[in-house]
Specification:
alpha+beta, six-stranded antiparallel sheet, single chain, 12 helices, 26 strands, four-stranded antiparallel sheet
Length: 585
């Protein structure tokens, strides 16, 4: 069992039917009033206090006057109640959630009109914390807890998909952890505010979304969402892979200093191997393969559905083979849509290649990893296409499953109102191509290799390799797999042996250093890396012109071993890490 959770009031989900005529309401409410405390709605829900609010609405705690049960009531701000598209979006949240009959999905139980002409819906009142806070407060979770959580997420989304609902904004903030039936990690999936109701298509649905619009939270968005393509259930498979990655490593696979930068990485970059990100959390090949398969760029290569992903999770540790992860060649076009294709092994690539369709995913050329590092990420969902929708998707601060303190009401309202009126979204669209082109042109650091898999049946020794203030990769010269890093506290594990192990120390901006040793006992080494030297690889002389004269082109090169040989590879450093900026804040 996990430790006791700090209490936090939370709700999620959304309404489903068109509001009918409400019964008489007790308490006096002025038109446009922002406070419903003391009011009784539908003749049975007495509002006792405000839990939180934002620019587009408020969440209240209420008690059923007959059965004395507490509920959370989400109310759309009256100033937006005259906008049909915002009202419909608000009601769709409840409509979507109430269509799903599954214990891990938040329950929506009622709806109606407020005295000032707005709309509300009633949902279960939860006490606990979301998974984002769980990771933030305690770091990466062990496999037994991650397995428990992910199986429940798979069940919830499978039920949603069976009901024709695609969530489209799965993330840890929308997975609320409570204590129930002896399970301290009981999960409730929240917030269907931008869910796609596929059963509405073709039968007169109002078409609140359309192809070309971008919906979701950047850190968890699939490549096809980032491109504004039509979403299907596999966008939730992709997001679930990102959630699992974060729970096991303590960080998301892609960060950048703008949301378009994050989307670009989802489209073009290969995620760093989870076992290399957190080598101390016991991440096995089977676990790693599940995450990487769920996050394949081409949706055709992912798990077919959430049940298939659940079966793979249940198979970890049973002796079942790791799921197949296909390496992908990712074309970066100058314009138009990109293509994802399974790739064949190519000569001269690093790490050494194996056939496509195997694990680890090493076939084909792997795009270089861009500047990484964990930064505070934007929790705001990204919606490009209808600016007016930005606010309502924020709900009453419960869009993220966590109520904002009432004291922040004025600031939150001002920020959301500015976001609605602002042209930031249009500017983001205008900048999208420039951001993508810049990312495509940037040659970043050498990609992270696959973690070295040790034989658990053999004894181990600890080896400390120091390289001063430089953090270097410790690579197996034979296959390019990584043992760890030179700054690892307590050293790096090797299988005990009297045979020499050939290693390569690699750090960006420094020459590779090769050395060998026999790991027959614990050892320590001090190594000094040499600064990388620039070499001129091509010099082109152009005919002298009136404006240009003679020019010379010089490229920076580093040596990268492949299959025992060295290849020259051009690199270009990307920009350093910066705090992620919320484009709508």
């Amino acid at each position: 069992m996990s430790e006791a959770q700090p209490e936090k009031n939370v709700t999620g989900g959304t309404v489903v039917q068109d509001p009918g005529t409400a019964p008489p309401v007790e308490g006096h409410v002025e038109p446009g009033s922002a406070n419903l405390e003391g009011v009784t709605l539908l003749g049975r829900y007495k509002i006792t206090k405000k839990l939180g609010e934002g620019g587009m609405g408020t969440v209240y705690l209420a008690e059923h006057i007959t059965i004395r049960k507490t509920f959370a009531i989400k109310v759309l701000s009256s100033e937006f109640a005259h906008k049909p598209d915002l009202v419909e979006r608000f009601l769709q949240e409840a409509r979507a959630a109430s269509m799903i009959q599954q214990q891990n999905v938040v329950e929506i139980t009622d709806f109606g009109d407020t005295p000032d002409g707005s709309v509300f819906f009633v949902m279960e009142h939860l006490r606990g914390e979301d998974l984002s806070d769980t990771v933030k407060n305690g770091g990466a979770l062990p496999w037994d807890r991650v397995k428990n959580v992910m199986l429940q997420i798979c069940d919830a989304l499978a039920a949603a998909h069976d009901a024709g609902i695609i969530h489209r904004d799965m993330k840890p903030e929308n997975c609320f952890r409570i204590s129930r039936a002896g399970n301290d990690d009981f999960i409730k999936v929240l917030d269907f505010g931008i869910a796609k109701v596929t059963t509405d298509e073709g039968d007169g649905g109002k078409g609140l979304t359309r192809t070309g619009m971008i919906f979701g939270t950047p850190e968890y968005m699939s490549p096809e969402q980032a491109q504004g393509q039509k979403a299907d259930t596999r966008v939730d498979v992709y997001a679930s892979g990102v959630i699992m990655y974060e729970l096991l490593t303590g960080r998301v696979p892609f960060t950048a200093d703008t949301f378009m930068g994050i989307l670009t990485k989802h489209m073009f970059d290969v995620p760093e191997a989870p076992s290399a990100v957190n080598p101390n959390n016991g991440i096995t090949q089977e676990m790693e393969a599940i995450m990487l398969k769920a996050m394949q760029k081409d949706r055709e290569l992912r798990f077919t559905d959430m049940r298939e992903m659940k079966i793979a999770i249940e198979g970890v540790g049973t002796g079942a083979a790791a799921v197949a992860v296909v390496s992908e060649s990712i074309a970066r076009p100058d314009q138009g849509q990109m293509a994802f294709t399974g790739s064949e092994a190519l000569p001269g690539t690093y790490p050494p290649q194996v056939a496509a369709g195997t694990y680890p995913p090493q076939g084909g050329t792997m795009p270089p990893m861009m500047d990484g590092g964990y930064r505070e990420r934007s929790k705001a969902p990204l919606i490009i296409g209808i600016v007016a929708l930005l606010g309502v998707l924020g709900g009453a601060g419960y869009y993220f499953g966590v109520a904002k303190p009432a004291a922040d009401a004025s600031a939150a309202a001002a920020a959301d109102a500015t976001a609605v009126k602002d042209a930031a979204t249009n500017k983001a669209l205008a900048d999208a191509k420039a951001a993508t082109d810049a990312a495509a042109a940037a040659a970043a650091a050498v990609p992270e290799p696959v973690a070295k898999q040790l034989d658990n049946t053999k004894p181990k020794v600890k080896v400390i390799i120091r390289t001063g203030d430089i953090r270097a990769q410790i690579l197996d010269a034979a296959d390019g797999a990584i043992f760890g890093y030179t700054d690892a506290e307590g050293g790096v594990e090797f299988e005990e042996s009297k045979e020499n192990v050939d290693l390569i120390l690699r750090a960006e901006g420094y020459e590779d250093m090769a050395f060998s040793f026999a790991p027959e006992r614990d050892k320590e080494f001090e190594k000094t890396l040499k600064k990388e030297r620039k070499r001129t690889t091509t010099t082109k002389k152009k005919k002298k012109a009136a404006s240009t004269g003679t020019t010379t082109k010089t490229k920076k090169v580093v040596l990268i071993p492949t299959d025992g040989k060295k290849k020259k590879k051009a690199t270009k450093k990307g920009s350093g890490p910066q705090d992620l900026k919320d484009p709508f804040g």
